[in-house]
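User: what does the whole thing look like in 3D?
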Amino acid sequence: MDRAERTGLGFAIVAHVLLLGALSFSLVRPAPKLAALNPPIDVALVDAKSLQTAAPDPVPEASGPPAPSETPVDAPQPVKAQPKPAPTPAPNKRASRLDSSLAAQLARAASRESANPGTGRGAGTSGSGTPAAKTAAQLEASFIQALFSQIKRYWRAPTGVDAELIRTTVDVALRPDGSVAAITLVSQTGVNENNANLKALHFERAQSAIRRAAPFPLPAENYVIWQSLRLTFDKRLN
Amino acid sequence: MDIMTPIIATNAASLSPVALFLQADIVVKLVMLGLLAASIWTWAIILSHALKMRRAARDCDVFEREFDRADDPKAFFQIHRDSAFPIARVFQAGMFEWMRSKASRNMDREGTRQRLASGMGSAIAAEIDRLGDRLNVLATIGSVAPFVGLFGTVWGIMRSFTAIASQQNTSLSVVAPGIAEALFATAIGLFAAIPAVIAYNRFGHGLNRMEARLTRFADGFHATLSRELEG
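Assistant: Here's the predicted 3D structure for the full assembly of 469 residues, as structure tokens:
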């Protein structure tokens, strides 16, 4: 190894160390971009949770026969009876019953409610008035569940990069006979530059799924509640 | 979310080469170290060879200028008797042969011409060999380093696929760091190979030119000595 080779080796080692150092310190910066990709997952988790917390409430009650528990106790009856009948259809339907039996249950529940209006009114007037509102909200939730269980077999979510992040919310206006009057787009979340080309398709698939699943056999007495329903379509649709 | 956070944290650091190296498998680490050594060696050879060639060319310039001005080869030989650069060695080889042939009593002119030519030719070949000593290393690194890097990459990607299988999670944040560190091996391989190939071609060309230059000088000198044989 002569002088020229020693010089060359020295320069080469110094240059490599400098290059490594430069790469180590200047390339760390773009990292935060990666961290920003995750928040959409958070939103999805929260939304799924809210739907589930609405459901578990009626499940234990639905398993037992409602009639015997209602008759012997007098005082708690109105409060207990009101939230009970409305949500029962939801879990049952989700347990893959046929649509006809499901509609029949909804009708039964609604008629049961209208059959003893005295207790309902009494509770509503003597209490704070919240139970009635809760019932309407729970009824609406159960109608939405009913719609979803019917729509589910027609729903094909688009596939592609980040397609599972898109969530399309639509307002469905229904006629009294259960057919679809109008579908309007409310909002779409989870759209980023990767899946922007899929968002129109997502809405289109949601529309066609609703139209193909129509008509929806919902109880006519509660038409006020279900004449307009807000549905959110995501990949799994529950 | 708790599972995601550490991956993102390593992701943030993994863009620096040192972090990529530290995350890698032992096989990939060895590949990376070998390729880094190859890169350093390549550049050492490139720099030293460039220095050597430049000095040789400068010595040639000076020597040829002085040789053109000198009237008597023998006097010029006394000056450059111990010079150690390529063109001087060729000159010395010619002069040694000339003096030895001159010393014998019945000189064969044709034989002397042939001996002069072959003596200087072999001196040229020896000098070119000496100058191009390390260039075969450049050729080897240039052709082998990409494959070694590719080996590291294939190994690293195999490893990250087994990681996917064991975690049963195909999300990009699980797959990406392993593949990034694996691809880093190919990147180092190319980083070592590209300069090696360029330098090999350039230096090959430079050596050819140097050989042509030495041959031209040797031919000229041979012509001078041949004329002297006749005179």
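In plain terms: Chain A touches chain B at residues 2, 4-9, 11-13, 15-16, 20, 23-25, 27-28, 30-32, 34-35, 38, 41-42 (CB under 8 Å). The CA atoms of residues 170 and 231 of chain A lie 5 Å apart.
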